[in-house]
Amino acid sequence: SEREKVEGIVLIYAPTEAYLKLAGVAYRSHREQLIKWLAKQGKHPEQLDGYAKDTYYTYANVIDQFHRYVWDDEDRFTLDLTHDHADEYLRELILSDDDYSTSHLDNTKLALKAYFRFTGNEWD
Question: Buried b vs exposed e over 58-78: b needs ≥16 C-beta within 10 Å?
Fold first, then answer.
């Protein structure tokens, strides 16, 4: 099939598209594992005690937004999120023109703490 072109140049070549699909598969798998972990053991991993549904729903959404923030900031897909990324993300939320509630900021902090606990790289 004819590939989409911009100014006569193929926008995304087939080999590049394969990489993009792999990134999507990697993120999907990562996110699925994260959500299951939040639901079944995220609150107290050693006791296999998960968060309540409303909590892990909120955390999963916050963590997805955090991923997109890092991807936009670095202009690339990565699953290697760092404590520096988290610090900068929170700083951006606090200093943004949007007036985020204390509750939203607290939930964001707790979600990020849970995410880094999931990755085995505690963050405070």
Answer: bbbebbeebbebbeeeeeeee
